[in-house]
Amino acid sequence: MQLRWLRFNQLSTENRNIVYFTVDTALQGLMMGGIFSFLSVFVVRLGASNLLVSLLTSLPALVMAFSSIPAGRIVEQQRDMVRYTNRVRISHRVSFLLIALLPFVVDKGLVEIIVLIWAIKSIPATLLESSWMAVAAEVIPPERRARVNGMRWAILSVVTAASTVAFGYILDRLPFPLNYQIVFFVSFVGGMAGIYFFGQLRIPENVPPERAKRTSIPFQQRVRAYLRAIKVPAFIKYEIAATVLRFGVNLPAALYTIYWVDDLNASDLWISWQGAVGKLALIVGYIVWGRIISRKGYRAPLLICTTLLGLYPALTGLANDQLWLPALAIVQGFFSTGVDIAFFDTLLAVSPTEGRPSFIALNTMLASLTIFFAPLVGNFLADWVDIHGAFFIAAGFHILTAILFWRFKIVR
Fold this sequence. Notes:
This protein is mainly α. The protein has helices at residues 2-9, 13-27, 29-32, 35-45, 50-76, 81-105, 110-120, 122-139, 145-173, 178-198, 219-229, 233-250, 253-263, 268-296, 299-308, 311-318, 325-350, 356-384, 387-408.
């Protein structure tokens, strides 16, 4: 054991950072396989309406939209990004604990309170988005991002898949709602454990930009100056195409759980198998697409993956039994990885180093606005046409995204 520790200490700072960053990522699998996978199922089983299920996704996005630009400015002023990120993480993870304990003390209005807590949680999540991205940009050098992120996300997928299956068995064998409370509490523990490893990262101190004298510049003028500063053509084109894709991905986001529980009568165990198989497909996808992107670049994989990812909502609309859920998850998991890897590095590439947190904050704001409106539109379409029609419309947005990326030639 001591010999292994000595060998670890002999690694370069860059390699030690990557190890700590990867361990932190792996522990987040307990959150992804737990509360993030099953919270919407929980509220549906509590009897939540379609609108409340949509608001579980939409309200956090709205909060992030309004707080993202101020968050970017706040994060820019921090010198120790690692320490600041961990402080924000604590307040973010506490929301998991609150939701786990809530059924012990609340009976009436439980769903509404859960939706409210999940929305408030988005305030620290917005700060976390900007600060985490700034840390990630320093931890992983550009030439290693595709390979390291592919490995890191593959490990995350393994942990998430294993925890999803384990949580599925817990949910099927313990009484409701104690089963969900245990799952959410374990998610909280996993999230808090990652804080230690993240705190071991060593990156250069951030140099905050000089603050403008707020007393002499009106608020409207500061906003116009901010918008002028981010007029980078590649960034704008990226955001247009990314917004279309986000709309296609999130339009049916709240409808999936409703469809699984109400239409397919899926059990918690089958929903967990669906999540686990999807994560295993992510592992394969991260390995395959990570290698392809490292050798061939981002353009072709991004066009292929954005188009074929649209098969997931389309095929979901054709499914008539819970037995199809794992197969559909393979499609979603495999092709979403190419999008994840390409989007992450492309965002960093089109965001200038100077003032990068502000660019990331604007990206977060636009993404959040899309995530707010898309599920509500999906809920409207499900009532207007039907839930199957909403799935097919979402698939069309994926095709439109591929066309935009091809026309804009953002990724070469």
